[in-house]
Amino acid sequence: xxxxxxxSNPSVHPTLIKILMLSKNEIPWRQSINPHISHISTIQxxxxxxxxxxxxxxxFNGRVISAIGLPHHYxxxxxxxxxxxxxxxxxxxxxxxxxxxxxxxxxxxxxxxxRITSIERLILSHGHQxxxxxxxxFLQSSxxxxxxxxMYFEFLEQDxxxxxxxxxxxxxxxxxxxxxxxxxxxxNPSNNESNKHWMEHNEIYKKGHSLxxxxxxxxxxxxxxxxxxxxxxxxxxGHSVDQMCxxxxxxxxxxxxxxxxxxxxxxFKQQLPSEISYKYNNGQIWSDEYFGLKCYINSxxxxxxxxxxxxxxxxxxxxxxxxxxxxxxxxxxxxxxxxSKRMWKIVEAIDNGAKTVEDIAKKVFIPKKLIGGGIFAAIxxxxxxxxxxxxxxDIMVSVSGKISSNKTTNFQNSIxxxxxxxxxxxx
Length: 427
Known about the structure:
Helices cover 36% and strands 18% of the residues. By secondary structure, it is α+β, with helices and mostly antiparallel strands. The protein has a single domain (14-420), classed as Metallo-beta-lactamase, Chain A.
């Protein structure tokens, strides 16, 4: 329920506005920038960061979208994964949450008065464990049909940590080193219990993927710009090779692509597996259309091509610190600015003497981000930005991995070009 009534649709009946303002379970959110949302009802409050929360988001056209906060089986600063349920030519669930969260999902559906077997389709925003980890269990329990982007099905049997590094890239050699360090850290006796917990869930997760790949559940492959009864699917890789956003009735379900408060990690450039490369990329080993920061910014440009008042329903941080964080697609501009500022900071660090990926990471991230398993994520993000700066001609990386500046800032123009024509494939 909104505290801000100004900026709402003038056709709303005054009695309805009075009811909205008198709601006892009101949680603040910004209605002024979300003119297509009538009100939000708290069905179940959950904790301060949204775990256990259930909300009904009611649009002015009468559509009801229920959001269910699902827990992870591991510690995550992103908060719960939000699964969304709506009736669109049959009950449709968007994202199923982390492996092991089926009982929480069932309990949420029970609270909403929905039988799991009445759900006709599950649409996955992308194939990361906190979004599709629960998919196979859900599909088995519900009998629903699985809908996902074609790249989801292609990558089903790819291991989570089996990155396709470019062995001739000095930047990727640094990544490989820190990936090995992360694995060593996980083997530390102090991490045995959590690592065992993770591996047990991961084995179940991989088995589910294998069964989906073998056709054990009904499925529908989605292509970019496909439209189903007014629901449009937009391919938006960059955080994940199979990420897509789903646009419906002036809202867009963004998965991890556009998040409030935080930005997802962009991927670094990777090889497509050979069998996929020949199928989709004419056998070319490398392609900016599927991986990397350039790819991610281009995909953010697709969001900016939607109507500016389109509301974003994210998979994380919908509710955090006792507030509902519902933004519109202009949030994509802020994420682009974040990455632009990071590149300015990296260029400045190089100009001031930083010569290695590690030097730059120490300038960009606070010390607590560079310990334990977190250091690989930090190095990953630095490398994705350095790759962009290499492509824009602003820096050079020697064979030994030493980084130097060309004293230019072409990257800003590169960003503008990417977001101005987002539907044109990157060469």
